[in-house]
From TrEMBL:
InterPro entries reported for this sequence: Metal_Hydrolase, Metallo-hydrolase_Enzymes
Protein name listed in UniProt: Metallo-dependent hydrolase
Lineage per the UniProt record: Eukaryota, Fungi, Dikarya, Basidiomycota, Agaricomycotina
Organism: Lentinula guzmanii
GO molecular function, one term: hydrolase activity, acting on carbon-nitrogen (but not peptide) bonds, in cyclic amidines
Domain of life: Eukaryota
Length: 523
């Protein structure tokens, strides 16, 4: 096949069978799809063949940010973290109001981010520059699709959305930026309100903008649990009144055993919502409800997990664990306990394996008050996950990798999702090649910097390290064995003999070689 064909050669694939994983392969792509996967045979380079020699690296499905905040990334320089903000805990968290100390850093993050957000509309160039940096660095890591949460509220207005829609068009060749208009702030202005306030009305307007694909909210920020449940209902209603079939909740973001898990409210409302979808076949196959954080579920007993599994059944619900944020934000008030602050994040390998739940992982925030640490690299979450989940078996490695590739793509409602970590004919040619390693295990436990990103069969990014070090190539000194005393006694005799022997009978001069052979082996 010629023309639009593209060959990725000399590459390892993430087969679970060790004999296949150790082999080298060639992947032929045509018009953005995989058409053939064959054993690699070294050939002379051809000027007529469009080929990428992967140098024996590892090819994986491209990475996906199933949950990332495009507008509030890289703002740590304007967020003063003092960790001293006090407030009253909303009753959504607990049956009995108590000190907010366990969540005070979340409140502080909300407060300092809110101040930063108020400046967004004044400097759209700054929004554009930071958003582009996040997308560019992500694509260089191997990301070809992302769900970008964009806050719309009275503080930010539409400034973040305007910029995100522009960026979506600018980078469409390299990455699909799926825009989720997101209410991080409460939809209800006060605990006494029965109707939603201006934040909700702005969200209604935002949903009508062409290019918006997802609606999202954070019910846990509402003043009361009744309003949190109404928040969920308002988002479902808004979706049903529009063409949007993708919904995303930041949900159950606490570790309080007394709090009511709102996942059951989502399930209850989703049942009605999905029944109405069934009447519209155009919506049926693209519907997806995504649940971010959900750390409260970590307190579930095995019986509660099985109950949740039964309740979800056929509903298109996918969870997204956000380990960088979950581990940073929680448990501060109990930091003096013997083992430190109690924290948790959805145990991706364990829960996926035991309860057959779809759980992706994503970066969430980069360099802001909610998550000051970490890079944009989704593979770094797998490395972190291996330690946090104590998960490094072959099955664990595969589940962790799927969580930032295949399962993340499912979570954002992507339709062209590969079935497995190795390419098969018919798959979309969206890949990341990890250079300098040979196995999936290395990709997860110690991901390399050098990568090539391919989208729709086209190379869209290439990341390489320039290396120099005072520590040069290792010089291994050869051990010189002292010559035995008796060799010196033979020396005057053997060399004349060898010379005479070689001159007289060159064909039999192997004698010298034999003597040297004996000499080396005796020593
Ligand atoms: Zn988030």
């Amino acid at each position: 096949m010629t023309g639009d064909s593209f060959f990725i050669t000399n590459v390892h694939l993430a087969y679970s069978d060790p004999s296949l994983e150790s082999k080298l392969w060639s992947v032929e792509c045509h018009k953005g799809k995989v058409v053939n996967v064959t054993s690699y045979i070294k050939e002379e380079p051809s000027s007529t063949k469009c080929e990428l020699d992967a140098g024996g690296g590892v090819l994986l499905p491209s990475l996906c940010h199933s949950h990332i905040h495009l507008d509030k990334c890289f703002i740590l320089d304007r967020c003063d973290l003092i960790s001293g903000y006090e407030a009253k805990i909303p009753s959504v968290y607990t049956a009995q109001p108590r000190s907010y100390s366990s969540s005070r850093d979340f409140k502080e993050a909300m407060k300092v981010t809110g101040s930063a957000k108020a400046g967004f509309s004044l400097d759209k160039e700054d929004l554009l520059r930071r958003g582009l940096k996040l997308i560019r660095e992500s694509v260089e890591c191997g990301v070809t699709s992302m769900r970008a949460h964009i806050e719309v509220d009275v503080q930010a207005g539409f400034s973040g959305l305007d910029v995100a829609l522009h960026l979506k068009e600018e980078v469409r060749l390299a990455c699909h930026v799926q825009i989720a208009v997101f209410a991080q702030e409460p939809l209800f202005s006060s605990a006494e309100d029965t109707d939603p306030g201006p934040n909700f009305h702005l969200l209604v307007q935002a949903v009508r903008r062409p290019g918006v694909e997802v609606i999202g909210s954070a019910p846990y920020v509402e003043p009361t649990i009744e309003q949190a449940k109404k928040n969920i209902a308002l988002i479902f209603e808004l979706a049903s009144r529009s063409s949007i079939t993708l919904i995303d909740f930041h949900l159950d973001y606490n570790l309080n055993p007394n709090s009511e898990p709102l996942i059951y409210e989502v399930i209850k409302q989703a049942r009605n919502f999905c029944n109405s979808w069934k009447a519209d076949s155009s919506k049926l196959f693209r519907r997806r409800i995504t649940i971010g954080h959900a750390t409260r579920l970590q307190l579930f007993t095995p019986e509660e997990w099985r109950h949740l599994q039964d309740a979800i059944r056929d509903l298109p619900i996918t969870f997204v664990g956000l380990p960088n944020s979950d581990m940073y934000m929680q448990g501060r008030s109990q930091a003096n306990q013997p083992l430190g602050a109690p924290r948790s994040t959805l145990r991706v390998p364990y829960l996926s394996d035991k309860y057959d739940l779809q759980i992706a992982m994503s970066v969430n925030n980069v360099e802001n008050a909610f998550t000051p640490q970490g890079s944009v690299d989704p593979l770094a979450l797998c490395t972190f996950g291996a330690a946090v989940f104590q998960a490094a078996t072959k099955t664990d490695i595969q589940i962790l990798t799927k969580a930032v590739t295949i399962t993340s793509k499912v979570a954002i409602g992507q339709t062209n999702v590969p079935l497995d970590l190795f390419p098969q004919p018919g798959d979309t040619a969206d890949f990341v090649i990890l250079h300098g390693i040979r196995t999936l295990r290395q990709a997860v436990l110690n991901p390399p910097h050098n990568r090539t990103t391919i989208r729709n069969g086209i190379i869209v990014a290439c990341r390489r390290t320039r290396r120099w070090s005072a520590v040069q190539k290792l010089h291994v000194p050869q051990t010189i064995t002292p010559i035995s005393w008796w060799w010196y006694m033979l020396f005057p005799i053997c060399w004349p003999c060898l010379l005479i022997n070689w001159v007289s009978e060159p064909r039999k001069s192997h004698l010298g070689t034999v003597i040297l052979f004996i000499r080396v082996h005796i020593d």
